[in-house]
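Before surveying the methods themselves, let us examine one representative protein, pairing a chain with its fold in token form.
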Amino acid sequence: WMERLRARKKPWRPFLAPFHSVVLHYTIGFLTLAFILEIYRLRRPSRELHRITSLVIGLSLFSGLLSASLGLLRAGGGGYDPQSLGLHRAFGLSIPVLTLLTWLAHIRLARDENNRWARAGFRALLGAALAVLVVGGHLGGNLTHGSRYLVQNAPQFVKTLLDEETPD
């Protein structure tokens, strides 16, 4: 019966794994929106904006968990450089963890808006989550598109600045 169960699971991997490329964009969007909302909240603090930010971080956490799960399915299909994949996996799995910590810090901040340490901790975690997301996303893009994808069509002066060699 275990073999039948495994046989039933196999068709799902090839179907679901490509959705990693779709779902990850929700995580990027929600986490970026939370960051923008927090910048706006610096100038115009409000309880309502705090609740909206909490919702957005929660959505980022949900989509991040789903994206990480689908990413593990995609990686299981093989065909990637193991070292690059391992680095991308480490960053990718860190994103939901950091997002959860950010959300918990945000909930803690709701109890005492005037606690500057809670506010600083929340903002530091939000910034760290976004930074890890950018690096992890870049590493994933390199896996999918190659390491020269962003600069292959750059003007020559940009390639020179980046010390990129141009093919003859």
